[in-house]
Amino acid sequence: MSHLSITFQNLLRIMSRKYRVEQKFTTGWSVINEKAIKLSKDEARKWLEQMLAEGVNPDDLRAIPD
């Protein structure tokens, strides 16, 4: 049986993870704005919400680790 062990260092690394927000275009995935990189999880969520409010298809958006 395998146990998942999270060390304090791993927890800090996970909590400090940065994201970038991308949109799928006909040419592939690309960052939506030069300011949409190295974001906290909450900042990335705000970018996604803003893009959705502007009418961007949710299937064409993603936030991925940066």
Element-level helix/strand string = HEEHE
Cα gyration radius (Å): 15 Å
Range of strand content: 15-25%
What would the average pLDDT be, to the nearest integer? 90
**Uncertain segments of ≥5 residues (pLDDT<50)?**
none
SS content category:
alpha+beta
Q: Tally of extended strands?
A: 3
Percent helix among the residues?
A: 25-40%
Spatial strand sequence of the major β-sheet: 2-1-3
Number of DSSP helices?
Answer: 2
Distance between the termini: 33 Å
**Main sheet?**
3 strands, antiparallel
Put the structure in a nutshell:
The protein has 66 residues and is α+β, with helices and mostly antiparallel strands.
What does this structure look like?
The protein is α+β, with helices and mostly antiparallel strands. It contains 2 helices and 3 strands, in the order αββαβ. It has a 3-stranded antiparallel sheet with strand order 2-1-3. The chain starts with 7 loop residues before the first helix and ends with a strand.
